[in-house]
Amino acid sequence: MRSMSKLWSLWIRVGLAALSGLLSGYAALAVAELVSAAVRPQASPVVAVGGAAIDRTPPAVKDWAIRHFGTNDKLVLQLGILVVLALIAMVLGVIALRHRRIGAAGVLLFGVVGALAAISRPDSTGGTDALPSIVGTVVGAGLLFWLIGRLRTDRPTFHTVGDDENAGRPPAAVGAAGDGWDRRGFVVAATAAAAASTGAGWLGLALNGSSGQSAVASRAKVILPRPVSPAAPVPKGAELHIPGISPFFTPNPDFYRVDTALVVPKVDATTWRLTIHGKGVTRPRTVTFDDLIHGRAGELIERDVTLACVSNEVGGPYVGNARWIGVRLADLLREAGVVPPSKGGPADQLVARSVDGMTIGSPVDDVMDGRDAMLAVGMNGQPLPFEHGFPVRMLVPGLFGYVSACKWIEDIELTTFDAYDSYWVKRSWARRGPIKTESRIDTPKPFARPAQGTVMVAGVAWAQHRGIDRVEIRVDDGPWQQADLAAQDSTDTWRQWSFPWKAATSGSHTLTVRATDRTGTVQTEQRTPTIPDGASGWHSVVVTVQ
Ligand SMILES: Nc1nc2c(c(=O)[nH]1)N[C@H]1C(S)=C(S)[C@@H](COP(=O)(O)O)O[C@H]1N2
Ligand SMILES: [Mo]
């Protein structure tokens, strides 16, 4: 009986050791969060390690994550990191029961990992980025050392289970249920640590959440300029009023978001600068937000442009249309002395860099060929939302976002494709990413059960900078039939279409759509994955007519 209760007591101590590990990890992260509020939110270990993980994620996995979790991919990543940390912390706690120093050193090791991740992030501001991880894990290791100390018995009963050492000792020395470990001390220390950590973590989160106040204030003060070259009014009939179809303009809150930023950069427009330099830049220049807004950096234009992501699956949601205001990028480049390669210039690649270290490379010829490439400051009548690149982002109609649409831009370097691979290109996406001719059925939804009669099939088609010429629908294996096209706004925007389908026979039917662009290219049936240069294939929807 006695050895039974001893075994029981051992298990309790092992459980409490695991709990000690968990509490130490919690304290470490909470303190790190608080310290990161004093340094910068991006230096918090989960953000730094998460960012490093994103950069090292194989392209196929990244694409899978975007596909399955959408914009929640980052939340899922952070939760995953926390679960792994919790498990490791518990293991370290149990190890510490036997080897207190090793357990505590294990916690410190994680501090080193977090610190290294933080200082090696592309947007790191230096050694102070290591502080949250270091201070946090020093506190965590100290706490583990202390808590495990309470769990220790005078003698290492841990490995003497079986040889009944306590036999003959007075009950007081053994303890009512334990083997002489400091129960009261443990409970008090553990409770105090949990409470203090919660306080520190909460304060850290609150401070980080309210960081970037100057950026928020600077955005509130932005008055969008009146464009010298306004967008043509949207033609009558460009917007169909069909339930379930994507609206012609995607409202800002609904606009898809794809980026690698775990913490959305909050950039103060009043201190923002953009530098243009590199090969063939005879007049390197730094411009301010005021320069852009007041037209000193180039003509202010307003244009409707549809943006699409290379990670968008056939039929997927990562495409949106907005009315943008910005400075014509070609003006700025010409002022800086840039000559496109087709006219003999030395640089064929423009590399945009963001404040968070993203690099996006666009062909100089595309940017300067007369299309409305711009440094955008306004989106659908608002200053850019922080998520979409405030204060300034790049846009090049006709190119996927990963090779054109740098958000939070702060640097433009002229170079060559031979000399430099940008972020996504290093991760096996193609150097050049022109948008493919695509179409999508928005309504009916897959597995809808429409009644017999006329079913309105409708959606959008896009082939930016070429324009959409025709959209066709096929029911089951029937002939291709022309859909009705909404009026074309510009060749840089998507085009809505509709097709009143006479659904005569009940049962399951497959609706398939394909578009033809104005160069005569028909959307290919051939299915390709998103990697390396965007998905292709026809979108189809299966419905059951009642
Ligand atoms: N700084 C930065 N800019 C970025 C990205 C990013 O990860 N970081 N992602 C690019 C990609 S892949 C796309 S598709 C577009 C998406 O822009 P949106 O989030 O405003 O829709 O932004 C581009 N610009
Ligand atoms: Mo993208």
Layout of helices and strands:
Layout: H1 2-38, H2 45-56, H3 59-69, H4 73-98, H5 100-119, H6 131-151, H7 171-174, H8 183-209, H9 213-220, E1 273-278, E2 285-288, H10 289-293, E3 300-308, E4 319-328, H11 329-335, E5 349-354, E6 359-363, H12 364-367, E7 374-379, E8 382-383, E9 393-395, E10 409-415, H13 423-426, E11 438-443, E12 453-462, E13 468-475, E14 480-482, E15 484-485, E16 495-503, E17 507-517, E18 539-545
The structure holds the ligand Nc1nc2c(c(=O)[nH]1)N[C@H]1C(S)=C(S)[C@@H](COP(=O)(O)O)O[C@H]1N2 and molybdenum atom (MO).
Molybdenum atom binds next to loops.
Protein described:
The strands form 4 sheets. The protein has a 5-stranded mixed β-sheet. Strands 3, 4, 7, 8 and 9 form a 5-stranded antiparallel β-sheet that branches. Strands 11-12-16-15 form a 4-stranded antiparallel β-sheet, with no helix packed on it. Helix 4 (73-98) runs antiparallel to helix 5 (100-119), helix 5 runs antiparallel to helix 6 (131-151) and helix 6 (131-151) runs antiparallel to helix 8 (183-209). With 546 residues, it is an alpha+beta fold. The protein is 34% helix and 21% strand. Bound molecules: the ligand Nc1nc2c(c(=O)[nH]1)N[C@H]1C(S)=C(S)[C@@H](COP(=O)(O)O)O[C@H]1N2 and molybdenum atom.
Write a concise synopsis of the structure shown.
The protein folds into three domains: 209 residues, no CATH class; 176 residues, Oxidoreductase, molybdopterin-binding domain (Sulfite Oxidase, Chain A, domain 2, Alpha-Beta Complex); 108 residues, Immunoglobulin-like. It is built from 13 helices and 18 strands. The strands form four sheets. A five-stranded mixed sheet has the order 2-1-10-5-6.
